[in-house]
Design brief:
Elements (H helix, E strand, L loop, with lengths): L8 E3 L11 E7 L7 H15 L6 E7 L2 H13 L4 E4 L3 H4 L6 E2 L1 H6 L4 E5 L2 E5 L2 H13 L8 E4 L3 H13 L4 E5 L2 H14 L5 E5 L13 E4 L23 E4 L8 H8 L4 E2 L2 H16 L5 H15 L1
Parallel strand pairs: 1-3, 2-3, 2-4, 5-7, 8-9, 8-11, 9-10, 11-12, 12-13
Antiparallel strand pairs: 4-6, 6-7
The chain binds NADP nicotinamide-adenine-dinucleotide phosphate.
Length: 308
């Protein structure tokens, strides 16, 4: 029975040397040391094995895979029996050409984070948008469609968030970014498959507070706030009747944006719930069964606290 060390970082060269058990899973990233996915998934598998002994054979590992080696390494993971893989930075788009099928949702999000083995190749899905949707309801009691959404960022996480808003039927979406070229490229892609939705844009360098909608949910998908010295990406106190701030950043656990919001009486939450729910959905895709959320959340909280 596998007994995975959730902190151990493996290399692709370890695939030929080690036994990862009959039903392995893994996250591939570069770097990957920071990933809390192994403790999260192993905690859920342990809980699931109480009812179904087959999950005693399942185990989740982390592999450091350089981007230039990613495509050639996938058949090795398949050969070694890896049933499912998560891709994290910088692999979410690099991996696309190597997959046999990609779900419509993942295509719209322009990235995959969840691979499932089908024979000797993998199919791709994206669970980040689902994670955001569940997290916003759970932490702020808001849906992505009940109020205007002001999304900050135009990178991979912002694209997943924007696509999820449109899939859910959001009708009032505003996107702000620093780099306008990147922002227009994102909006162009979104409009291609959802021409009926009105998407409005603005610059984070000169935020038009007066023109932004009242009563909005703000989702921060920029990386501004990951460093303690980072400025506010937007000032929630200058927004009219802001309903809530969802900051995708989970480390540090409370960003300056969250602090400013909470001090002004605006509900705010960090990205941990999104991280947990994207993991729950990935494990559901691999097992085909409902996944217990509580052990994943507890393991995630512990792993993030231990890192601080
Ligand atoms: P990315 O593709 O590199 O995009 C980074 C975004 O941040 C871009 O919009 C970039 O704007 C903006 N940005 C960076 N530095 C900035 C600055 N100094 N001022 C203004 N804007 C700045 O990264 P990503 O993958 O989308 O990730 C973004 C964040 O989401 C990260 O903090 C990541 O940890 C978090 N995330 C969380 C989860 C979760 O489960 N909670 C999942 C995915 C991502 P420009 O285009 O102007 O450079």
């Amino acid at each position: 029975m596998p007994n995975p060390d959730s902190a151990q970082v493996y290399q692709v060269s370890d695939l030929g040397k080690m036994d990862f058990g009959p039903s392995p899973l893994a996250v591939l990233g570069y770097p990957v040391k920071h990933s809390v996915s192994p403790p999260m998934h192993n905690a859920a598998l342990q809980e699931m094995s109480r009812k179904n002994p087959q999950y005693r054979e399942w185990a989740y590992y982390k592999f450091e895979v350089p981007p230039e080696k990613l495509i050639e390494s996938l058949p090795l993971f398949a050969e070694k029996g890896f049933l499912g893989l998560n891709c994290t930075i910088p692999h979410k788009t690099v991996v696309l050409p190597a997959l046999s099928e990609v779900t419509g949702g993942a295509r719209r999000k322009g990235a995959v984070n969840t691979l499932k083995r089908k024979g000797d190749i993998y199919t791709g899905d994206n669970t980040d948008g689902f994670g955001l949707q569940k997290a916003v309801v759970e932490t702020l009691g808001l849906s992505l469609t009940e109020c205007p959404v002001i999304l900050l960022g135009a990178g991979g996480a912002a694209r997943a968030a924007a696509a999820q808003c449109l899939e859910q039927g959001a009708s009032d979406l505003w996107i702000g970014n620093r780099n306008q070229e990147r922002l227009q490229a994102l909006v162009g892609a979104l409009r291609e498959w959802s021409p009926q939705t009105r998407i409005r844009t603005f610059s984070l360098k000169n935020i038009p507070y007066e023109g932004l909608p009242a009563g909005a949910l703000v989702v921060n998908s920029t990386s501004v706030g990951m460093q303690v010295k980072d400025p506010l990406p937007i000032d929630p106190r200058k927004l009219s009747a802001c309903r809530g701030i969802y900051d995708m950043i989970y480390s540090p656990p409370e960003t300056l944006l969250m602090q400013a919001a909470l001090e002004a009486g605006i509900p705010a939450a960090n990205g941990m719930a999104m991280l947990v729910w994207q993991g729950v959905k990935a494990l559901e895709i691999w097992t085909g069964e409902p996944v217990p959320v509580a052990p994943m959340r507890t393991a995630c909280e512990k792993a993030l606290t231990d890192k601080e």
